[in-house]
Amino acid sequence: MVKLFVGGFPLDMTELELVQLIALHGDVSTIKIVRDKKTRVCKGYAFVEMTDRKGAEQVIEMLDGTPLGDRKLSISIKEDEPAVVKPANLNIRRYDAPVKAKRPRRQ
User: What count of other Cβ atoms lies within 10 Å of the Cβ of residue 104?
Assistant: First the structure.
């Protein structure tokens, strides 16, 4: 699977219309148009998962920079970010860290 960032399409474009445009050049697996949480208005970009890299590169070659309505398409491959490994217990004290004195409690 290859994830594409697709930006610059008209804000009134639906998922189906966007898939129909991209599917002419490669097999689309999933699509997610990003929308505002409260108003559900399209923010103007989407993420599309393609089944293979060759199809994704063909989509970029054919559609990147293409005018669509009053906007211009911007398509690129979204590289996966490396996973951030967090320690299991964040309360572990380092031995070289200074120990902070506690305030005495009121009686």
Answer: 6
